[in-house]
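Hi support team,

I've been running sequence recovery on a batch of backbones for a student project. Most finish fine, but this one hangs at about 90% for roughly twenty minutes before it completes. I'm not sure whether the input is malformed or the queue is just slow. I've pasted the structure tokens below so you can try to reproduce it. Let me know if you need the job ID as well.

Thanks,
M.K.
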């Protein structure tokens, strides 16, 4: 699909920057075209920022990680923030692809629940005004690093802001895997899968599987089994520096069950018996732009009562 991009540098708005008492600033706008097909909300955001004297680069179609690399080479020095229009999935992907630039991100919710995309369309202009006035804070969020080993060789190495999940990919049969923490066996599970989540990801798949909700600025790693065949189905909360290894087991009396590991819901790899998924805290950090008057508890209360 052709990538739609505009670059606007205060066109038609002489003196707009002085109106706000600010020098020229630059924002990157990323839109989920499925959720904003006519770019109605995208253009509202662009026009508001342009009127406020800001430069904008707008990307309205899917961008690969490689394309992001080229984009950020030229824009990372002067971009103040990345404004993402869509749902939590859109924000996760944008944050993951741009994490090395250290440019903070903020989400405008065009989806349903939107725990990560805190700005609702009904509050769009007040939120944009806060961004223009720099009335926000930057909240660091930890990421997970996941490495898949097969026969002693690394076959995948990537990061996740939300979660790393191992699930079946076929018939309704149990998976068998062992979980080691810091080299010691924690438990062998017979389950539909396992979720390793960050605090940011605690309100995602982890929550659906019965895991705890964690304040997103906390620093822990959550392990939540999915439909475990045991009475002990509690989540385990680990220290951020713990090293986790999940080894896929094969049952001699059963046909091998297809399964896969998934990073933030968009990067998948098929697993085989004997494979190991090593999970640690990433050395990278994502920064979320938080509007000062909106706390996580505010967002949580609103979402739980919707």
């Amino acid at each position: 699909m052709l990538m739609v991009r505009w670059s606007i540098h205060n066109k038609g708005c002489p003196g707009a920057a002085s109106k706000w008492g600010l020098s020229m600033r630059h924002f990157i706008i990323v839109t989920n075209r499925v959720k904003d097909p006519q770019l109605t909300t995208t253009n509202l955001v662009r026009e508001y920022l342009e009127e406020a004297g800001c430069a904008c680069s707008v990307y309205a179609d899917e961008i690969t990680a490689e394309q992001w690399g080229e984009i950020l080479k030229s824009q990372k020095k002067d971009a103040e923030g990345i404004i993402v229009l869509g749902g939590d999935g859109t924000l996760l992907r944008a944050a993951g692809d741009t994490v090395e630039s250290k440019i903070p991100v903020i989400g405008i919710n065009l989806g349903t629940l939107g725990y990560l995309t805190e700005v609702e369309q009904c509050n769009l202009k007040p939120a944009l005004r806060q961004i223009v006035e720099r009335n926000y804070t930057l909240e660091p969020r930890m990421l997970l690093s996941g490495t898949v080993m097969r026969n002693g060789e690394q076959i995948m190495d990537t990061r996740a802001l939300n979660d790393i999940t191992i699930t079946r990919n076929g018939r309704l049969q149990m998976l068998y895997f062992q979980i080691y923490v810091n080299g010691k066996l924690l438990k062998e599970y017979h389950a539909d899968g396992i979720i390793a989540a960050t605090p940011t990801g605690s309100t995602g798949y982890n929550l659906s599987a019965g895991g705890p909700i964690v304040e997103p600025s906390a620093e822990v790693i959550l392990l939540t089994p999915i439909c475990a065949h045991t009475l002990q189905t509690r989540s385990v909360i680990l220290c951020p520096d713990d090293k986790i290894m999940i080894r896929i087991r094969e049952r001699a009396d059963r046909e091998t069950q297809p399964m896969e590991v998934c990073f933030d819901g968009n990067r998948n790899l098929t697993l085989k018996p004997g494979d190991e998924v090593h999970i640690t805290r990433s050395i990278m950090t994502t920064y979320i732009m938080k509007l000062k008057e909106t706390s996580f508890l505010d967002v949580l209360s609103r979402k739980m009562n919707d």
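--
Follow-up from support: It reproduced on our side and the slowdown came from queue contention, not your input. Residues 1-22 have pLDDT under 50 and may be disordered. No action needed from you.
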